[in-house]
């Protein structure tokens, strides 16, 4: 029997209760598909921070680097200033492990309501590959008051480092500015990942940018996309401006198979994706480094007001667990879990409040685990 060791960070708020159900379903999938999971639990989150002052240490990150995939609940707690835990733990993990792909399946499951009129599960089934490390989210920028000033801005990566020396001479009362950057290395690896995915699915890849206005940065993105496209002659491609693609997601979601986007636009369009696939309780995500340590999580937060009530929907977390198994190569177990989720929803008997039901988080987890065994 294959043995896996999977580190798990349940986190804050509803994190522990949704992760419990995810583990239940993944353990059951293991029984059926012939693997065994040893879960290695990590305490990181609000309580741990308040008790010890530690967000996540270099030693812990080093220890985590021996694993292929981390299972993550959610973090965020009202006792701690917004952003501290998210930056110190979640973003730190994504950055440390260079998880350059943010993978977001946008799939309307059978039986789920979508706000898009006349669209069904047949129409909404695509995957967004969002670049996860560059673009306008590299965090360099500043403010400058009227007059002359200097500023040095640096981007340090394993793959490269870049230094900007700015000589600012402004007669505006005050300015705020932000630099966005994409590198050849960073752009090519995420686009290649998306082409590989498209090659394995319906051989259609749509690129997102705003090359008509931000032509230096996204013109570069287009060039790299075009150069890699030449290696995949069987994959049909198209370019979409980000404003237009939000329109097409609503009007013709059936057009899309795989969508690849730079970081900021990817962030925006995946929230739209979450809504058309039925809302936050149903949207999983993966932060992937195909050669290193990846992390899988629901995209929603820690919903502190529901903490400990056994009330929220565990489906996004269970689905994130299916993505994790896919990353480990357990393809059959992964698709059995997605099918079991779908059956649970179509049966319509065991569902949480957000889907119009009264069942508990643990009831939904148990029902999906039962279905994994049966279907
Ligand atoms: N990845 C993460 O860990 C992550 C992501 C987003 C927000 N956060 C943090 O979570 C905390 C709460 O943030 P928020 O309230 O803006 O967002 P949230 O996603 O935690 O919750 C917003 C609302 O969505 C609904 N919801 C969320 N998950 C649900 C589920 N599984 N089932 C049913 N309904 C669900 C609830 O009504 C909830 O009040 C903050 O501290 C925030 O920083 C963490």
UniProtKB/TrEMBL annotation:
EC number: 1.1.1.85
Cofactor(s) the record lists: Mn(2+); Mg(2+)
Listed PROSITE patterns: IDH_IMDH
InterPro entries found in the cross-reference section: ICDH/IPMDH, IsoCit/isopropylmalate_DH_CS, IsoPropMal-DH-like_dom
Molecular function in Gene Ontology: 3-isopropylmalate dehydrogenase activity; magnesium ion binding; NAD binding
The protein's enzyme class: oxidoreductase
UniProt keywords, alphabetically: Manganese, Metal-binding, NAD, Oxidoreductase
Keyword Flavoprotein: no
Isopropylmalate dehydrogenase-like domain ranges (all copies): 5-368
Record has Metal-binding as a keyword: yes
PANTHER family on file: D-MALATE DEHYDROGENASE [DECARBOXYLATING]
Protein's UniProt name: 3-isopropylmalate dehydrogenase
Organism the protein comes from: Candidatus Methanoperedens nitratireducens
């Amino acid at each position: 029997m294959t043995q896996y060791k999977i580190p798990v960070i349940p986190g804050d708020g509803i994190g522990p209760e949704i992760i419990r159900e995810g583990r239940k379903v993944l353990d059951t999938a293991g029984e059926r598909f012939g693997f065994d999971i040893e879960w290695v639990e990590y305490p990181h989150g609000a309580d741990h921070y308040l008790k010890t002052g530690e967000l996540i240490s270099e030693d812990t990150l080093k220890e985590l680097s021996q694993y292929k995939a981390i299972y993550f609940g959610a973090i965020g707690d009202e006792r701690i200033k917004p952003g501290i835990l998210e930056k110190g733990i979640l973003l730190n993990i994504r950055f440390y492990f260079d998880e350059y792909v943010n993978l977001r399946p946008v799939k309307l499951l059978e039986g789920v309501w979508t706000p898009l009129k006349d669209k069904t599960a047949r129409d909404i089934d695509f995957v967004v590959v969002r670049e996860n490390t560059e673009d306008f989210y590299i965090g360099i920028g500043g403010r400058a008051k009227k007059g002359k000033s200097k500023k040095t801005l640096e981007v340090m990566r394993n793959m490269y480092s870049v230094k900007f020396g700015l000589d600012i001479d402004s007669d505006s009362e005050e300015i705020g500015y932000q630099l966005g950057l994409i590198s050849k290395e960073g752009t090519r690896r995420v686009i290649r990942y998306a082409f590989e995915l498209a090659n394995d699915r319906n051989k259609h890849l749509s690129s997102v940018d705003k090359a008509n206005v931000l032509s230096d940065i996204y013109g570069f993105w287009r060039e790299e996309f075009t150069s890699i496209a030449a290696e995949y002659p069987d994959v049909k491609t198209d370019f979409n401006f980000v404003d237009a693609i939000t329109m097409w997601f609503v009007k013709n979601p059936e057009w899309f198979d795989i969508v690849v986007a730079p970081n900021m636009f990817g962030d925006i369009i995946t929230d739209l994706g979450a809504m058309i696939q039925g809302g936050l309780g149903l949207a999983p995500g993966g932060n992937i480094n195909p050669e290193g340590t990846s992390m899988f999580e629901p995209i929603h937060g820690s919903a502190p007001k529901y903490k400990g009530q056994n009330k929220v929907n565990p489906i996004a977390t269970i689905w994130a667990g299916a993505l994790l198994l896919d990353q480990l190569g357990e393809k059959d177990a992964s698709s059995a879990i997605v099918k079991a989720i779908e059956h649970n929803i179509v049966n319509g008997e065991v569902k949480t409040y957000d889907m119009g039901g009264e069942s508990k988080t643990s009831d939904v987890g148990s029902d999906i685990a039962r279905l994994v065994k049966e279907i």
